[in-house]
Design a protein that fits this description.
The chain has helices at residues 20-27, 36-39, 58-70, 88-98, 116-124, 144-156, 174-183; strands at 4-9, 31-35, 49-53, 74-79, 107-111, 125-126, 132-136, 160-164, 191-196, 204-209, 222-226, 232-236, 239-244. The chain is elongated. A hairpin with a 2-residue loop joins strand 12 (232-236) and strand 13. It contains 7 helices and 13 strands. A 5-stranded parallel beta sheet has the order 3-2-4-1-5, with helices on both faces. Strands 7-8-11-9-10 form a 5-stranded mixed beta sheet, sandwiched between helices. Strands 6-13-12 form a 3-stranded mixed beta sheet. With 254 residues, the protein is α/β, with parallel strands linked by helices. The structure holds S-adenosyl-L-homocysteine. S-adenosyl-L-homocysteine (SAH) is lined by residues 12-13, 79-82, 85-87, 115-116, 120, 164-166, 195-200, 220-223.
Length: 254
């Protein structure tokens, strides 16, 4: 008997963001693995085992889930947002590549979810309406110098930039340094969106200019979107502003 491993995206928070496919994958699993707070979002089901683990133990968690599935179990590993965006799907692929041959024949399904940048963008308008890129500011898995090189390249190439993992307790300075860096390339009026805990009860979304953007307001649950030269803010009486990036660019700016 061969087991099954589903790597399931839970979306940004509220259960309304869970896709029917993800619900089905979770309901069909005998055992769930994941970061504790993400597992807490999955409704309990009698007879289903749970293995919560720490946020930083992604490879060990992936290996444990694969071992379990290889024994014939139906296992689901959960991720917030989409499992393929700075999350468990890549950790599972890394383990399959490095692990025993039998893991390659497992029935593996990656079940997508709504990633944080899409949830934040939808709250404020359409900041990702033209070309954009996503970067993790965490330098746990890459040197900070590479982050800076990518920020320079992305801003000077005109991409809107979604910043995941802007800060953590162990990484307090990265976002401030990144904002400083981006000020070298972009107009001070460039819109910067801070989307915190989007899709959860404590959600908070705000917009600042690059000049006024304060890294201190971001925490681990915040996604930051830095606009391009084209990104616009439309004020609306009695309603929050709309931030959007037009679909067309007429000419190459200097
Ligand atoms: N796989 C996840 C991202 C994991 S990296 C996804 O697709 O969304 C963790 C980072 O995602 C956080 O530091 C934060 O930048 C962002 N994030 C996750 N959930 C969020 C939410 N509900 N609101 C805002 N940002 C969120």
């Amino acid at each position: 008997m061969t087991g099954r491993l589903a790597v399931v995206g839970l979306g940004p928070g509220d259960a309304c963001y869970l896709t029917p496919e993800a619900q089905e994958a979770l309901a069909g699993a005998d055992t769930l693995y994941g970061y504790g707070p993400y597992l807490d979002r999955v409704p309990a089901r009698a007879g289903q085992n749970r293995h919560p683990s720490d946020n930083r133990e992604e490879r060990a968690r992936a290996a444990a889930a694969l071992r379990h599935a290889a024994q014939g179990a139906s296992v689901a590993v959960v991720s917030g947002g989409d499992p393929g965006v700075f999350a468990m799907a890549a950790a599972v692929c890394e383990e399959i590549e490095a692990g025993p041959e039998a893991w390659r024949t497992l029935d593996l399904a990656i079940v997508p979810g709504i990633t944080a940048m899409l949830a934040v963008a939808a709250r404020i308008g359409a900041p990702l309406g033209h070309d954009f890129c996503a970067l993790s500011l965490s330098d746990n898995l890459k040197p900070w110098e590479l982050v800076e090189r990518r920020l320079d390249a992305a801003a000077s190439a005109g991409f809107v930039i979604a910043l995941y993992n802007p800060v953590s307790r162990a990484r307090p300075w990265q976002l401030g340094t990144a904002i400083e860096r981006l000020r070298r390339h972009l107009p001070q009026s460039t819109p910067v969106i801070f989307g915190r805990a989007v899709g959860r009860p404590d959600e908070c979304v705000s917009v600042a200019t690059l000049e006024a953007a304060d890294a201190q307001i971001a925490d681990m649950a915040t996604l930051v979107i830095v606009g391009s030269r084209e990104t616009r803010v439309v004020t609306r009486p009695g309603r929050p502003p709309l931030v959007y990036t037009p679909r067309a660019v007429a000419e190459v700016s200097a």
